[in-house]
Amino acid sequence: MPASSILSARDLEFLLHEWLQVETLTERERYAEHSRETFDAVLELAAEIATDHFAPHNRAADEHEPHVVDGKVVLVPEVAAALRVFADAGMTAAALPEELGGLQLPAVVNLAVHAWFQAANIGTSAYPFLTAANANLLVAHGTPEQVRTYVPPMAEGRWFGTMALSEPQAGSSLADITTRAEPQDDGSYRLTGTKMWISAGDHELTENIVHLVLAKVPGGPAGVKGISLFIVPKVLVGEDGALGERNDVVLAGLNHKMGYRGTTNTLLNFGEGGHTPGGRPGAVGFLVGEEHRGLTYMFHMMNEARIGVGVGATALGYTGYLHALDYARTRTQGRPLAGKDPAAAPVPIVEHPDVRRMLLAAKSYVEGGLALGLYCARLVDEERTAGSAADRDRAHRLLEVLTPIAKSWPSQWCLAADDLAVQVLGGAGYTRDFPVEQFYRDNRLNPIHEGTHGIQALDLLGRKVVADDGAGLALLAETIAATTQRARGTEWADLGATLDELVARIGAVTGALWADGDPERALANATVYLEAVGHVVVGWLWLEQALATPDQGEGREGAFYAGKRQAARFFQRWELPKVGPQLALLATGDRTVLDTSPAWL
Amino acid sequence: MPASSILSARDLEFLLHEWLQVETLTERERYAEHSRETFDAVLELAAEIATDHFAPHNRAADEHEPHVVDGKVVLVPEVAAALRVFADAGMTAAALPEELGGLQLPAVVNLAVHAWFQAANIGTSAYPFLTAANANLLVAHGTPEQVRTYVPPMAEGRWFGTMALSEPQAGSSLADITTRAEPQDDGSYRLTGTKMWISAGDHELTENIVHLVLAKVPGGPAGVKGISLFIVPKVLVGEDGALGERNDVVLAGLNHKMGYRGTTNTLLNFGEGGHTPGGRPGAVGFLVGEEHRGLTYMFHMMNEARIGVGVGATALGYTGYLHALDYARTRTQGRPLAGKDPAAAPVPIVEHPDVRRMLLAAKSYVEGGLALGLYCARLVDEERTAGSAADRDRAHRLLEVLTPIAKSWPSQWCLAADDLAVQVLGGAGYTRDFPVEQFYRDNRLNPIHEGTHGIQALDLLGRKVVADDGAGLALLAETIAATTQRARGTEWADLGATLDELVARIGAVTGALWADGDPERALANATVYLEAVGHVVVGWLWLEQALATPDQGEGREGAFYAGKRQAARFFQRWELPKVGPQLALLATGDRTVLDTSPAWL
Asked: Which residues does the UniProt record annotate as the domain Acyl-CoA dehydrogenase/oxidase C-terminal (chains A, B) (predicted)?
């Protein structure tokens, strides 16, 4: 495959095959129909469709953002055309079981497939990925009838799906949602309320939209324990699967964003009387699973969605890096310090060390982020298909502790990669003649949605590392130690030793933070904790990559491996030292923020 | 004055009067007509005009960016209206001498005036500030006739000015400009060439535009030593000052930017035959000063422009911080950890420690940045008006070493403040319903223009700290030591001691980097050096502020001082430790970047 500015097929090959050995998954029953050839074929197809149908309208979808005409959401026509090609290629259902029309692809390969589309056009790719997440949730928690009714049309791309959690007054605080679901005699519910920030909440791309809606059944417990989950289709579905009456789900407005504009983002009214199915008030909804357990189901989906957000952030950073690299290799300007003869020809700017610094930093972020996302997806496969219950449980626990990092680290550092990409291009990067400014704007959403950066920090330090007496963190430490053990006696021993020391410090700091059992004090600096652990985790994955790299090879192959090793060295020498002051701050139990009165700001 | 979301009048009062004692400048002859009252009156007027005429169209100028209709650049009409009010209030000429129609304001007060307009509307404020910089350059280096012809119309806001340095093929590399200036028999020149990235390069706001253009006179030395500076008016000016024939300066295109959109940014053709003054080819230009010394004159202006860019970056960060603070105090969501009773009312989000962390960090960046900018402007006043030549020279040397920091540090950290502001607002911050996303986009220009971040690093480590056997750095160290000396025996002794240690390490690292006289190796990590020194300088200015803060006061005044002290502590505990790994990296003489082959990326 020729070199692409969207994503690096060579790097994916390295990560999937040379490092993660994904071919071994075909030994598992679930993936037995697959082979390295089928994995590679679907990846190549993804790259082709992403290149030919997604990337070309990325700018157009940004310039002509979704708008409402006669009550309908209008998108640039290329979106529907691209999604038709995507669905026809079976991409929506790539990870679904075969009996539901899916390709039954491993999660790790599926995530690599996603990365191609996210890097090419994050806005357009959101529609099918939300749909796939919706379908996955129904497969896991819906009744057989619900699955039969809603999943195949989504798998075929005829219907799309959404997740409707947030509300105008609630934001990150789902305990405060007020959408009500009144039980009806026929077992269905009638919903009333308003949902905010609903991506893909309304459009004309498909004939139906399946909303998964969080709401409270009157009389239930207060707070998050009283939240239930409902299927609320835009158009009601008859027993034969045919579309019937319009449900009372009405677009109340579009959000106009800084970036990520291709994905329409909506305010939706449920049961406000815009339509009254059967002549009665309320939007018709169907309970998923049991009442009051809605948040549990949603979080099951959300963990995968969070890894997906991390990979999306990585993909946006990755394509930014590749565009900057391409520019730096072709744009000539200035001369080397050693020979500042003004009569000499200018050199490509990649020859200037400061430009290489920016590119190498970006490379270490985006390849590190991709390794993190794929590693987590590989754990999803282990969690599902490992041979022993102990191995599945181990994968589950490790995934629990890694998920907030898989979401937040790329959202921070691959955005930083796009910031560096803008800087490499300079004034050109600040104009809309080049795509990097859009990647930068698009990527800025990722530290916000699917749980903000600060929410991920509370999740990691407040839940994940304390659960089961710290078993998750202990398992992470053990897993890292297995890698550093392999590094002993190699040229990477020093990186391994640094990681060992940092992991030990994280363990000590975690204990110290929780020593007095005061969650307010323990969690006051949770974000610093998240960022420190995140950097150590990515440092470990750089060691993993370095150890998977043969110290040989010539030409392009040799340069590829040399680049991997150099990026690992960069992360070791330039990035990991940043963790030192963070852990030192945490170790002091710093109260600066906690003791700051709002009146002082 | 009521609290504003544009800038803090109380903070400016503290910085200008309680800390920098600007009233003492009125003891100098140049500023003898002024008093605290006149300073405060002009600041109050600036705040009023910024609030009433600049801020209201900040979003409109972003949404309706400059565009060309029938060959003319069209802006939203509010821009011209605001600039009329601005000019009529004498703001363009605020720092010019009285005999040229100016207010003869000290640079430090003038910069505070600028900050109000930059925070309110960076795009509109650029027109008069470029004009003022242009006029200042002519006052310093033009002939009396040139000054008489061009400065008063600019001071009155009837004409605007530009700086035309860059070219499409040259970017940061001015040595490679190819615009030619052919001397004519009458002493004028004829220019031909194309200039890129020219802010305010064309518009209908004024009846004339005075371009200051860098060009090469044939036969001069190669590279930067062959660059001369020319006045090239859009419309030629008769001896009586009346406008005459159109000069051959033609708009070739507009750049469409991510932000900063209100300032039109142009590609300009000089002498390409769009007009032919007197029927002869070439744009008519008038030499400023001597041939081949153009870059020296331009850099004289550019140093002040760089401080101005830093203050602009600070202003954008400051208003972002204030908007986020306002949102955090009024938006309710969630509950304190200590009392997670779901039935309790939600609290303002400023009550959540992670939100306070973001606000306190932003506060430490924007107030630190403002202190840095004003300190440098105060040095400009010293350089101009101090009583002894030794004091003027001292101010000049200190300013030389601080200028790259005054430009780059706020461009990095006050952009970070806007990033935090977006994060505090969450999803809302990502929408165009709130202004913070625009501040974030606008501010992203600042690490690029007027010398990129990397260029500033080369300036600091490659020129400023090595000039005169390191006299500039020694003077900076001495100046910081004078502050840490005052901190001894106070509650701030530990911050002083930390700064002493860091300054010593910077001195050692600087020596080590240059020890073998290999500029390529010394400068390979110049950006890390710039960032480390910048953080230490701002840490020092936080100590300065803390020492100027009475540990007393009640109510709002007490809270103001407590906030200053807390921000100083934050910078001490959270920010200064980041410098440790940077200096450690520099001390190893790290070659990771230098040894990276472009083929490995």
From this structure: 293-459
